[in-house]
Amino acid sequence: MKALVYHGPGERGWDTVDDPTIIDPTDAVVRIDTSTICGTDLHILKGDVPETTSGTILGHEAVGTVVEVGASVTTIKPGDRVLLSCVSSCGRCRYCKEGRYGQCLGGGGWIFGHLINGLQAEYARVPFADNSVYTIPSELSDEQVLFLADILPTSYEIGVLNGKVSPGDTVAIVGAGPIGLAAILTAKLYTPGRIVAIDLADSRLEGARRFGADVTINNAEEDAVAAVMELTGGLGADVAFEAVGVPATFELATELIRPGGRVANIGVHGHPATLHLEKLWIRDVTVTTGLVDTFSIPQLLRLIANGRLDPSLFATHRFALEDTMAAYDTFADAANSGALKVVLQGTDAQNTATTRAGVLVAD
Ligand SMILES: NC(=O)c1ccc[n+]([C@@H]2O[C@H](COP(=O)([O-])OP(=O)(O)OC[C@H]3O[C@@H](n4cnc5c(N)ncnc54)[C@H](O)[C@@H]3O)[C@@H](O)[C@H]2O)c1
Ligand SMILES: [Zn+2]
Ligand SMILES: [Zn+2]
């Protein structure tokens, strides 16, 4: 089969590799119908994720069709359409029993395209299949559910739920990439009073307004703290999300918050950030962190099925799966291409879609 293979920092190829097979009785093999690329894949390609070794197939988000199941798999069968989540679950360890699949001790957690071969490929081996895949209702398209594999549950669990967004809250979101935009969509489920999006890029702030931000602040041009204080009568935001992953934006999120407010860090940090405890301790501020567990996929899936949540705005570009190399170039050049999420379509998905490879969907 063909797959997108990581060959060490800066190097990737669309290579011919061995077809995956069942290794453990709890495995399934799935044909990838629709996949996508994550900012984390770009981090791996930069060499920021040293545990991902050369030769690993990348990708941790996909929709596919089951082609084979191991002897002990009972809840899915060949022909079923399934969502493959970025996080797998052994189902047996302490953390899986608590729904904290991201912390799985039994060989699950974030493994696809990280510790084992991933999902930007024609086929994939899926460990712990009974516990880790989600059957998709036939009336929903691949693209409607694809973003449940990572960005929607990440922003919902690590942002909205950890930050305890409540009706009427002023929610400030630092960073308006796919994660910040998914935070806007899922925060709206709780009817906040106002959503404020903060980013350095006007194109991203334009996206934030499309997704439902009420106020946008370009913090390259404007003092974001002063602007949020003015909006909130000098108090600060009730909830602030950090959705970038650099020290400056974490520190900004803690400056935007009102006494008694909640700062939910979503960004993946590679460097130490300063926690200004000397300013925060007296203000009753809560700071939360987290790796996504994806326990909320069934709940978010029901919202999509019932028309209450529409993630279709994320799909800015579509490519044939065999054009994954070009899709990476477009995704990595988001500043010029306007890419939010690029959809990679396997042969079956291409037959049911009407678009050409690389077409900008948003225009
Ligand atoms: N916690 C988790 O489980 C989890 C899961 C997935 C992704 N993430 C992380 O979430 C973060 C966001 O992901 P993404 O895909 O949206 O990233 P992205 O790079 O596409 O978007 C980041 C946005 O932040 C903006 N930005 C950069 N520096 C800024 C600054 N100083 N002030 C304001 N805005 C600034 C950029 O212009 C961009 O729009 C990343 O760190 C990613 O690794 C975390
Ligand atoms: Zn991801
Ligand atoms: Zn486990």
3D shape:
globular
Low-confidence stretches: 354-363
Beta-strand content estimate: 15-25%
Mean pLDDT: 95
Give the SSE string. Answer: EEEHEEHEHEHHEHEHEHEHEHEHEHHEHE
Please count the helical segments.
Answer: 14
How many strands, what sense, and barrel or not for the largest sheet?
A: 8 strands, mixed
In whole angstroms, the N-to-C terminal distance is: 33 Å
**What is the helical fraction, as a range of percent?**
25-40%
- Rg from alpha-carbon coordinates: 20 Å
Ions, cofactors and other ligands present here are: nicotinamide-adenine-dinucleotide, zinc ion
Category from helices, strands and their pairing: alpha/beta
Kindly state the number of beta strands. 16
Overview of the molecule:
The protein is an alpha/beta fold and 363 residues long. The protein has 14 helices and 16 strands. The strands form 3 sheets. Strands 3, 4, 5, 6, 7, 14, 15 and 16 form an 8-stranded mixed beta sheet that branches. A 6-stranded parallel beta sheet has the order 10-9-8-11-12-13, sandwiched between helices. α5 (151-161) crosses α6 (178-187). It is globular. Mean pLDDT is 95; it is low at 354-363. The site of one zinc ion has 5 residues, from loops.
